[in-house]
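Example 3.2
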Amino acid sequence: MTAGMVSLECVSFGVEFRLAACSEALLESMWKRAPFGAAVRAAGCGDVQRFALLISPGGDGYRLEAGDEVVGESAELPPVLDQLACDLMVHVANHAPDRVFVHAGVAGWQGRAVVLPGTTFAGKTTLVAELVRAGATYYSDEYAVLDELGRVHPYARSLQMREGGGVEQRCVAVEELSGRAGIGPLEVSHVVFTEYVAGGRWKPEPVSAGMAVLEMMRHAIPVQRTPARVMATLAKMMETATAVRSERGEASETARRLIAAMSAGPGV
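Structure, written as tokens:
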């Protein structure tokens, strides 16, 4: 390690990695961007991926390295830390030995989960927040974390809320929504492909299990590395789930309809 560097040995979902920085303050900032549920290991991890935050050579900014590659550089610290958070999550998702990560919001209701696959700006967080306000249990606003049985586990980080459809985000703890986070795994009863459309109407159409798996493959992070494992996990999840597709309007109304469907049970 470069002289004067400080580091932390970390693990998340069974994936070990090292955070390193040129000061304790920067290292603390890096740790705050580690994936939800990450832990610090007392012993060294050996030969693992290293993420290092350094002062730029000219002293006028910050540089992020992943291994020997420079992956981010900026005069301001927040963009570099945002890049770190993204790269760490992708690294963990790609190498987790017994989990599949799907870009999706997740909420629990009466012991079952609804999974809302979608890309950034699809409105996942807004809809999950309304489900929580309506009494659902918060599981995730960004990743459905699935085990080999197809059950979804909590990734209950603070919700990243956008105000008025803007780009800027603020962290909102689930308690601010008068909600609570999930603890254990849930079977999935509903998979809902939906996106906000101004003036949109909720008219759900059924999606076959096979088509749902193929659609979710597009949103699964480790699909390039382990496509067979990803497909098998998603197929297992769909054994208990009903999939539908619809545009949606306001999130509060859609949340009410989803909770009614989940209360009626799978197949509705």
